[in-house]
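Our consortium's second objective concerns turning raw sequence data into structural hypotheses that experimental partners can test. To show how far this objective has progressed, the report includes one record in full. It was chosen at random from the queue rather than selected for favorable results. The single chain below, 141 residues long, was entered without modification.
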Amino acid sequence: MKKKILFVCIHNSARSQIAEAILDSMAGDRFEAESAGLEPGSLNPLAVEAMREIGIDISGNRVKGVFEFIKAGKLFHYVITVCDETGDNKCPIFPGYAKRLHWNFADPSALEGTHDEKLQATRIIRDGIKERIEAWIKEAE
């Protein structure tokens, strides 16, 4: 049976979408990943571009809210928040019996600078999420 994982951030626009897609691409045979946000926004084009660079297309992903999962009665083995510390006080707690983890990543929607500067910073966030997932898969199995 696959372990069910929910990645949560504030808007489900970048970090949680990136984490879901990376876990699916690395270990979709062992884990069932989903993502959601407390205040669903819109998909971040920088996240889409950064993921496309590593061969993962998230452009068709739908932004989802945590409360969709709560209303549906979905349960997860792990709920992993990927908010940064400044947004951590807003980072949602998901009800139910699940192992809860918090991974601190900056919010791509808060980045400033030129498009190229913001894209480079989004790549760093993407790569950090990928490294954290690689290490976590070994712990979670």
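The partners drew two points from this record. Residues 115-140 form the longest helix (26 residues). The domain at 3-140 is CATH 3.40.50.2300 (Rossmann fold). Both points have been shared with the crystallography group to help prioritize constructs.
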